[in-house]
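User: Can you recover a sequence for this backbone? Please restate the input before giving your answer.

Assistant: Of course. Working from this structure:
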């Protein structure tokens, strides 16, 4: 009696691993036309924007109780609206993949809207609950994702729920790896990236435009703001959600083609109409002629002993005896299993070493090849690879180029700011009295003269009993001194209060200097903008405050 054996067949081409499926999903997203992304944005952006506004109002507004119920109702409607348009987006994605132009009817669109409104809100409860339980999380996530993308596989709109539930259990190991490992890795990486971008965005705006926000003045304020983390999570959802939906769309597509053979039809469509009909005719003719030839030739029966011996010989091969107990292998008169395993391990190591060395040698030699023929072949290979769905490498290249551009922009801005600040240091040379600025003009800045020249100019004005202008000259000398010490950055749009805040941040270890500048600012503004008279005693007081500022800083 022939022994029954379980043969471990090769994996189907449709059962790709997670990396290949992700690359295929990214390639499919790149193939989508612009109107597909408009549909996705039409549904997703209103919900995301409303969610951010609602969160900000509920977390920081004093009138949050007024908008609690209306905002929650609007958010629920926006969520159902988003799911409906994401289902329509999946229909466009299927049209691109199978090369057809299917558009759902009015009744089908109503069924889609009704189904998404009934089932999708439960996902907000069931998926997080299953995430806590860990084990049922992949199936719960797959079901609610399939419920959106399977609308494209049911043109009548009557069996979408059944297909979503059925396809949720396809490829359990692959589904678990993607759900529990890759989704968490991608989500964490993208979330941290968005937090970094949002955290440095106020400083980038301040560096490029000079606009100073509360997050620049107090860096820890942004970390204590819950809207900062919610915004990072929202941008993470916008970045990752199309990839996740394309991934589950391909899973459902591969499962559906096992039943419908749609992939064969798509292949024939890509070959073209006349060519496809010719291939079908040639295949049918070959099958018919082959069956006729086999029917005319007599077939000799194979003896049972020979058939059984052949089956035993094939079944004794190493790739088919992985599940047999060791005692059965020893009874065959062969060497022990551990000896065969060790010999095979040595052979595998030897082959691996030779293969690695050969690949390394080829790679090392290719570094020095500069022939035009080789370059043309490499260009053709790169073109082929660019169309093979290698999406992760493309995304990495785009991110790297973007980071290089941002870094170059920051370096250019820093060089530009350094060039702008050079006149401050170069203007320390003494100037003549004819070059003294008109202090009655508001546009006069502190970098117009050097520190010594401002003080000398103040003494000249005081000798002419122009104490009001002399006090402004002393105050501008203070600003020039602080700028020279790198405690403030001079700018025409800045007010004295902004200079005070900037000094407080940068010279917090010099409290006397901060207090002296605050008193000097108050004294100058009371004379310059107020009705207080300018007197020699107040000018002396201004000079004393300047000396205190220079001594302490």
């Amino acid at each position: 009696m022939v022994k029954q054996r379980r043969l471990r067949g090769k994996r189907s081409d449709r059962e790709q691993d997670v990396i290949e499926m992700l690359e295929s999903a990214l390639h499919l997203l790149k193939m989508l036309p612009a109107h597909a992304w408009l549909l996705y944005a039409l549904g997703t952006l209103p919900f995301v924007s409303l969610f951010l506004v609602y969160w900000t109002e509920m977390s920081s507004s004093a009138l949050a109780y007024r908008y609690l119920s209306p905002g929650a109702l609007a958010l629920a409607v926006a969520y159902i609206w988003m799911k409906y348009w994401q289902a329509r987006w999946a229909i466009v994605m299927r049209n691109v993949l199978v090369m057809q132009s299917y558009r759902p009817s009015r009744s089908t669109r109503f069924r889609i809207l009704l189904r998404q409104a009934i089932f999708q809100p439960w996902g907000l409860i069931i998926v997080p609950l299953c995430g806590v339980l860990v084990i049922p999380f992949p199936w719960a996530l797959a079901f609610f994702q399939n419920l959106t993308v399977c609308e494209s596989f049911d043109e009548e709109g009557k069996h979408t729920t059944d297909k979503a539930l059925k396809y949720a259990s396809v490829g359990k190991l692959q589904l678990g790896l993607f759900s529990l490992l890759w989704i968490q890795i991608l989500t964490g990486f993208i979330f941290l990236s968005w937090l970094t971008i949002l955290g440095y965005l106020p400083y980038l705006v301040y560096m490029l435009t000079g606009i100073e926000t509360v997050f620049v003045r107090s860096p820890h304020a942004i970390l204590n703001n819950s809207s900062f983390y919610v915004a990072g999570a929202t941008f993470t959802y916008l970045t990752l959600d199309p990839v996740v939906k394309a991934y589950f769309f391909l899973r459902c597509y591969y499962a559906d083609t096992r039943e419908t053979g749609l992939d064969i039809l798509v292949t024939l469509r890509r070959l073209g109409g006349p060519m496809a009909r010719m291939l079908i005719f040639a295949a049918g003719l070959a099958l018919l002629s082959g069956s006729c030839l086999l029917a005319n030739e007599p077939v000799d029966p194979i003896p049972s002993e020979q058939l059984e011996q052949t089956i035993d010989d094939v079944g004794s091969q190493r790739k088919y005896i992985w599940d047999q107990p060791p005692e059965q292998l020893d009874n065959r008169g062969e060497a022990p299993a551990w000896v065969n395993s060790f010999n095979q391990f040595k052979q595998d190591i030897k082959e691996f070493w030779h293969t690695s060395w050969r690949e390394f040698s080829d790679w090392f030699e290719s570094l020095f090849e500069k022939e035009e023929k080789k370059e043309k072949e490499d260009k053709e290979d790169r073109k082929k690879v660019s169309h093979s769905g290698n999406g992760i490498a493309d995304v990495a290249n785009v991110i790297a180029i973007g980071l290089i551009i941002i870094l170059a922009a920051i370096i250019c801005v820093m060089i530009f700011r350094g060039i702008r600040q050079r006149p401050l240091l170069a203007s320390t040379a003494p100037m003549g009295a004819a070059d003294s600025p008109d202090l009655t003009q508001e546009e006069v800045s502190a970098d117009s003269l050097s520190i010594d020249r401002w003080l000398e100019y103040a003494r000249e004005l005081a000798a002419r009993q122009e104490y009001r202008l002399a006090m402004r000259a002393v105050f501008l000398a203070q600003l020039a001194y602080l700028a020279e010490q790198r405690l403030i950055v001079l700018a025409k749009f800045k007010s004295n209060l902004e200079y005070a805040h900037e000094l407080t941040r940068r010279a917090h270890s010099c409290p006397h200097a901060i207090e002296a500048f605050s008193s000097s600012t108050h004294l100058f503004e009371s004379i310059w903008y107020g009705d207080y008279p300018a007197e020699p005693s107040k000018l002396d007081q201004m000079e004393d405050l300047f000396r205190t500022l220079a001594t302490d800083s």
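That completes the design. Residues 261-292 form one domain.
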